[in-house]
Write a structure and sequence with these properties.
The complex is a heterodimer of chains A (about 240) and B (about 270). With about 240 residues, chain A is an alpha/beta fold. Chain A is built from nine helices and eight strands. Chain A has a six-stranded mixed beta sheet with strand order 4-5-6-1-7-8, sandwiched between helices. Chain A has a two-stranded antiparallel sheet with strand order 2-3. In chain A, α3 packs across α4 and α8 packs across α9. Chain A starts with about 25 loop residues before the first strand and ends in a 10-residue tail after the last helix. Chain B is mostly helical and about 270 residues long. In chain B, α2 packs antiparallel against α4, α2 crosses α6 and α7 packs parallel to α11. Classes of the chains: A alpha/beta (about 240), B mainly alpha (about 270). The interface between A and B is large, with 40 and 37 residues.
Chain lengths: ~240, ~270
């Protein structure tokens, strides 16, 4: 009777932080720390039982529709496309769902296809795509309505190292740097966090342990690098991967 | 603008389902053949049981074949109303598109509505095929039919059935699997609604229960319109009864659905399979 039973598990508590427009902030922490839950609350997929969260001034509970207008959400490895439709047909459907009229949708799809290097593959059924292609298609979908805020859950999880590096460069250079999109992403890869994030939110058991720049976290803990800082903040047995 | 974009969205869902169905063209051809076997079965069954007493017992006139064919063909709409909402939700969960759709600027009710247009259109085509086989091969006569009346009955029926379908989908939303509401309501409708036999042969207390389910009015009205060519003054009672069902069921089902949706968003189980 889970859906009607009393809620017992507290996934997030006392989490409070704000991200500046155009900033890239990373959520890090062990599995089960609450990173994905936090992103899902911001994406309006989970309603918080208490507290308040806003995306560009829109409350995710009382103005969910307003918040969704401002955000793009993407979870790696959970792309969810219609395999029998082409990439273009998939994007066209999601563009319409984001209130883009036909002409605007087609223009935007062409723009994103060029930006993400997808021109060649867009007219193939999406079931024929590789993991990397699907990820690009997923990112294209989250950018269709030019959101002010992009929420990414482990964006490079299923990419090979070369594709992951390329993807990071694209996110940092084009999405944050050129388009000025605010980025909040969860990651287990500290190299990725150091490369992309100006500030880091360290979560443990649904609470914030630290929120600062990687440099300040190192300075506060006396560690030489982010990995050492996190070990000192969370203890030596953290399951966060240290693949720099 | 809002209305326009909502229609664009509904059309986009229909286009999606049509594009996916294009990959399974042979399925439709097989269904057309299957319909022929179904109609032939009813035809020979009706020849076996047909008698002057049986024909005179049928309230809307015609023979038993015509009576059963309409019951069988239009009962499908109720099945679609129950299954289409449920399966669109389950499919979106399974192929992981639900989460991607939920973060767009489209509400879940519009998504569900958009996802059931194609099944209803397909059912209408299937009904035409059933009746078509009946007319072409088995002497099913629609010469005196009141077609506009039949369309009105159909539209009112779809509204009433959709109310039941959305109500039962709330259960699927909450509990994911198994849906007693669907099976109870479908079973009751098949048993009491007059699909294969007139409601008048049921015991009085069951006839009273039959008056509480929309399919009874739907089949009565449809048979009157198609078989007896009844004028509108005779069809209005069925149409009004169906619209009353819709007026009650649709708001109640939307409220139930909204509550279920909120609940699953709080428990974080909305996209769980």
């Amino acid at each position: 009777m889970q859906p009607v039973a009393r809620l017992t598990l507290r996934a997030l508590a006392g989490v409070s932080f704000s991200v500046e427009p155009g900033e890239a902030v990373a959520l890090i922490g062990e599995n089960g720390a609450g990173k994905s839950t936090l992103l899902r609350v911001l994406a309006t997929l989970i309603l918080p039982s208490r507290g308040q969260a806003e995306i560009s001034g829109c409350d995710v509970v009382s103005d969910g529709a307003g918040a969704r207008k401002q955000l793009g959400y993407y979870t790696s490895g959970n792309e969810g496309f219609y395999g029998r439709l082409t990439g273009r047909e998939n994007l066209r459907l999601f563009a319409t769902m984001n209130n883009l009229m036909r002409r605007e949708a087609l223009r935007r799809i062409d723009e994103l296809a060029e930006l993400l290097g997808m021109d060649e593959i867009l007219d193939r059924q999406s079931r024929t795509y590789s993991t990397g292609m699907l990820q690009r298609l997923g990112l294209a979908r989250s950018l269709l309505h030019a959101p002010a805020v992009l929420l990414l859950d482990e964006p490079t999880r299923s990419l090979d190292p070369v594709a992951a590096a390329e993807f990071r460069r694209f996110l940092k250079g084009d999405i944050v740097g050129r388009l000025g999109t605010t980025l909040l992403f969860a990651s287990h890869t500290l190299g990725e966090v150091e490369e992309m994030a100006s500030r880091v939110v360290l979560l443990a058991e649904g609470r914030i342990l630290a929120f600062d720049t990687p440099r300040n976290l190192c300075a506060q803990t006396g560690a030489a690098h982010l990995q050492g800082a996190l070990e000192r903040l969370t203890g030596p047995h953290s399951s966060t991967e240290r693949n720099r | 603008m809002n209305m326009h974009i909502t229609f664009e969205k509904l059309w986009a869902f229909f286009r999606r389902d049509l594009a996916i169905a294009r990959g399974y063209r042979s399925a439709f051809i097989l269904e057309v053949c299957e319909a022929l076997f179904g109609v032939a079965t009813f035809y020979y069954l009706s020849r076996f049981v047909e008698s002057p007493q049986l024909s005179s017992a049928l309230p809307q006139g015609g023979n038993y074949f015509a009576f059963a064919l309409i019951g069988f063909a239009f009962f499908d709409y109720l099945g679609v109303a129950f299954n289409a909402f449920d399966s669109s939700l389950e499919e979106a969960r399974q192929n992981r598109t639900l989460e991607a759709l939920l973060v767009t600027q489209t509400s879940l009710p519009v998504m569900l509505l958009g996802s059931v247009i194609y099944p209803f259109v397909l059912t209408s085509l299937r009904t035409v095929v059933y009746l078509g086989w009946g007319v072409l091969l088995f002497g099913f006569s629609v010469r005196s039919a009141n077609w506009i009346g039949a369309i009105l009955i159909l539209l009112a029926s779809i509204l009433a059935f959709a109310g039941l379908g959305i109500f039962s989908t709330s259960y699927t939303l909450l509990f994911k699997r198994g849906n007693p509401a669907k099976w109870i309501l479908l079973g009751l409708s098949g048993f009491l609604g007059g699909t294969m036999y007139p409601v008048s042969i049921l015991p009085k207390y069951l006839q009273d229960v039959a008056r509480l389910i929309p399919i009874t009015y739907s089949l009565e009205g449809m048979r009157s319109a198609l078989l007896a060519g009844a004028p509108f003054r005779l069809l209005w009672p069925s149409i009004i009864a169906l619209l009353i069902f819709a007026a009650v069921l649709l708001p109640v089902s939307f409220l139930t659905f909204a509550w279920a949706l909120r609940r699953t968003k709080i428990t974080g189980t909305l996209t769980h399979i």
